[in-house]
Amino acid sequence: MTAPRFAPWMKVFPIARNEKTPPEGFTDWQHRASNDPVQIAAWAAQFVGCNWAMACGPSGVGVVDVDGEVGEDSLFAYELEHGALPVTMEQKSPKGRHLIFRDPDGALAPTVGKLGAKLDTRGGASYILIAPSAINGVPYVFNNQTLADLPAHVRENASKAREAISAPDDVTLDTPTAVARVTRLLKDYVARGHVAVEGKGGDDRTYAVAAEVLSLGLSEDKAFELIHQHWNAACLPPWPEDELRVKIENASRYAQNDAGAWAVSPFSERLSREALDRLAETAGDQPSSSLGEERTSSSGWAFGVHDPVADASLPPVTYRDARKLWPDSPGKTVSQVIAGPKQHKTNFIMAELFRLMRDGAAKVLMLALEGGYGVRTMRLPVLAKHHGVALADLDGRFQVARISGGMFDMSDPECVVALADYVRAGGWTDVFIDTQHRSAGALDENSATDARLFWNAVELLRLRGRCNVVLAHHTGKDASKGGRGSSADLASVDQQIELTFDRLTLTVTAKVTARKDGVDGFSVPFRVEQAREGVPPVIVPMTAEEAQAVAEADDLTAPRVVAAALQSLKAIGIPKQCSTQVLALEILTLNGELRQSDDEQKRALKNLVNRLQARVTKDRRLQALGRKDGAGRTAPWLWSLPAEGAEAWPNA
Question: What is the mean pLDDT of residues 423-444?
Fold first, then answer.
C-alpha cells in the first residue's frame, strides 16, 4: 500500500484504524513520532489502512480544537474578547476543525474547556489525528493554509490554573437554544459511539455527559428528559431511570462548573456594534493607532483618539482594477451594493468579479439565490468561454455555493456565522450575494430598524469571514433614485454603484454614487456583447473614446438625426409641425430600430420619446427644432425644421 505523504515538519505515528489511539502494542509515541518517509512507509505496511496522528510538541505546533457548534460559539466569544485569531493552517475534522499554529517551543499546554466550552488546545505532549485519517467514514481534510504564529494570549490562557466556571447571574436555564444544542450534541454522541458501556468506564462517561449537559444550560429535570430520550437507549446496557436520575443529581451537586456556566446566548443578542468594532480592530480593519490611554466605562464602551502623525503615514486607498471600481485598501475589506435593472445587474457583477479572478485579484464565492440553475448552467460557462478559462480551472477561484439546511437568511445569525466560517476556511476574498432582497429573510427592506439588523449581519460576515461582500440590489420604480428599500442602506454600505442600461446603444454605465473612502461621483462605460440569441450576454469594459464613438454613432436624439427625420416627414415650418411620438417613430424607422414584437416596439418608442423630451430642454441646438405647445409643465412638444435653411440641417 502506498504510504501517505506529510509536510516535512510533521512528526507523525500510526493510529488504529477508525480509532483515536495507537495500535495495540505501539507505545512511547512521543519519542517514536517521525518525519522519515522510510519509517512512515514501514508503518503503513505494518498497519494497513491505519489512521495517522501528528505529535504536536515534536512537530513544533500548537492547536486550537473547535468542537462543533458549541465550540464555534465559544471561539466567536473568545475572539471578541481577545482579538481575531490569525488565518492559519486549518483541518476539518469529523465533528469540528483544528486551527494549527507555529509553536516551536512546544509551550502550548493541552487543555479541555479552558478557552471556552468545547474549545480545547493541543500542544506539547499531545497529538491530533490528521488527514488521511477518518472516523466512521468521515475524513479529516486540510485546507493547506500557511502556518501562522500562535498568539501569545492563547498560550497564556491555556496555562492558567483551571478554575470553576460560574453561571452568569442572569442565566436562564432550559431555553430553546440550550435544548436544541444539547439535543444535537447527544445525537452526535450516539452517532459516534460516545455512550456508556458497562465495564469500559460507563459510570465516568455518564457523569461527564451529565455534567456537560448541565453546563450547557439545562436544569436537572430537563437534562434527565433529553439524556433519557436521545442518549440512554444507546448505552450498553441502558441505565434504569432511577439510577440515571442519581447520576444527573450527582453531576449537578459535585461538578466543577455551575449549571448554565457554558450557556451561550443567541448570536443576535451578542451581535453588538461594540463587539464588531473590537473584532474589526484586532483583525487589522482599523489601522490607525490611538494616542493616550483609552477610557472604558462600566458599560464596556471605550473611547480614545487617533494620532494625526501616524495617520498621515497610512497608505492611500488603492484599487484592484484600473477603473477604480473595486477598492483594495491594506487590511480592510468592504461591503458594496450594486443596484440596477434586473436584466443586467447580475451579468455585470459576475463579469467584473470574473475579471478580477482571472487577473489573480479575487477568489469569488457566489450565492445565486435568484436563478441559480441558470447561473451554473449558462452564465458562468459563457463567461469562462469568453475569457478562455476552462471550467475545471474555476475550482476554488469562482464557484457557486451549495446551501443546505434551509433558505439562506441574513436575519439568522447562525446562518451568517456558518457562511463566514466557510468563507474564511476556504480563503474566499469576495462573497457575491444575488440578491439583497432574497437574502434578507424575514426582514422588511423598507424598515430602517430591519435595515440596521441586516447591515450588522453583513458586517459580521465581512469581519468574521475576512472577505469583501458584494450585494446585487433591485432599483425601485424610479430608477433615478437608486436601490429600493430603506435609506439606511446607503448610510451603512461602504460603496454603492448604480447601473443604467441603454437599450438603443446596448451600453451599460456604472456610476459610483457613494463611497465612504475614496473618490465617488464618476461613471465607467461598458458594452453588452451577446454571441447569439438565447445565450446570456457578457458585459465588457469600454474606453472613454469607444463610449464617445458609440454615443455619437447611435445617438438617436442628436440634432442631425432629428433633422433628417423631420426632412423625411416634410415637417418644415410651423404649419407642418409634428408630435414627439410621430417624430420618434420616424427616427426608429429611418435608423432600422423597429422591433419585431408590438411590446418591444412600444418600449423602444416610449424610451425615445422620453429621451427626446429630456434632451430638448437642455440642448440649445435641438430647441431650434422643437418648441412647447403651451406654458404648462405637461404641454406637448411640437417639432419642425425652420422654414429657411431647412436643407442644411441634416448635415449640421
Answer: 89
